[in-house]
Amino acid sequence: MVLTAAEIAASVRAGALDPVQVTREALDRIAAADGVVGAFRRVRAEEALREAAEVAARPDLASLPLAGVPVAVKDVTEVTGEFASHGSQAGPSTPGETDGVIAARLRAAGAVLVGLTRVPELCIWPMSDTPDGIARNPWDPTYASGGSSGGSAAAVAAGMVPLAHGSDGLGSIRLPAAMCGLVGLKPGADLLAEGGWFGMSVHGPMATTVADTALLLSVLADVPSLASVPSPSAVRIGMSTTVPLLHTPVPKELVAAVSTAAGLLASAGHEVTPAAPRYPPTMVLGMTARWCAGPAVQARGFDVTRLQRRTRAHVRAGRLILRAGLVRERTKQRWIERAEEFFEGHEVFLTPTLSHWPVKAGRWHERRWLANVLPSTRLAGFTGQWNLAGYPAITVPMGRSAVSGLPTSVQLIAKPGGEPLLLGLAAQLEAANPWPRTSRR
């Protein structure tokens, strides 16, 4: 069993573990498993070992929150000596000369960056395959690991690393975390926004435990107090398993996971009642417009002729949306007003994370745009609206399907600033209903 990040860091700080040995063992696990799982676009083997030795020699080793912890970073992150491909062969490939904010904060905390994880082109899709590989679900490699942080989720769920960085524009942390049985936190837009997709995209952590999730969040956000998971007092929780506006059917086992979580939270003293926000019909337009227009803006720095067929179609749609002026702030504000109305009577909202089971793993990048759009929208019915609102949300594992063996999960949402509350509730669910941490068991 892979140690947790908190266990590794504590042992390194105490001198009981050597960062170089910890990194070597992580690289061995990657070498053993990634040929099947396909989590990494680039493994930084030599660089990681050198950086681990540098961590071991740091004079502040005893105070580093992620001392010697191997961490995978999503392939959207500026790392010295590397280039962020964003899952594409059409973008710049010049190695960066400096770390971006995410890599810099991870290094400052003592983490060792072992590799860049696979993403779909321009992070558009909830399946992470590229011409050189497919990120597969470690619980059943015939299924996709999700997206766009699918490589990060696969790396953690397979036990290759204890922590991974992800980003989330419409569910890109929560969806793969749910598919792979992890804790995945999308912070509020006020905490870790990266500015992409017209403010919908944020950075966040993926881990096998709530404590590790909080630890990585505290480092990514540069807010040390977030590492302490509180014990929440009783709160009012609204619960719904109905897909907003579309009302499409949700698989029974995904619905049952919400019922189980509701019962556990009620037993912990919380008030759980059926309730949902009054979703404005324009909300879907607001999300869809940004989903298309955001990549269209990003693609301005890419060779469009080399983009995948599905991406070119998505970018064309985004350009039409931009010309028509359909990315409207008032659409977002109307939804925020409805969300605020709901949270006047509730502190938390509980839903499924997935609105359908994961798709099969495959070369989705070779298929047409519509063949990707339909399963994407089918999966993500419960997630994207909270990116539009900018509210924090967390995915928590609840068990495994009796039919497929795939993980089940729930999503908890709070109003801005509610990350500690979400972590506290997730910890209560973890204590009452422990889950297998990785597919390695």
Automatic annotation (TrEMBL):
Belongs to the amidase family. It holds the Pfam family Amidase. This is Amidase family protein. It comes from the Bacteria. Transmembrane segments: none annotated. Residues 22-423 form the Amidase domain.
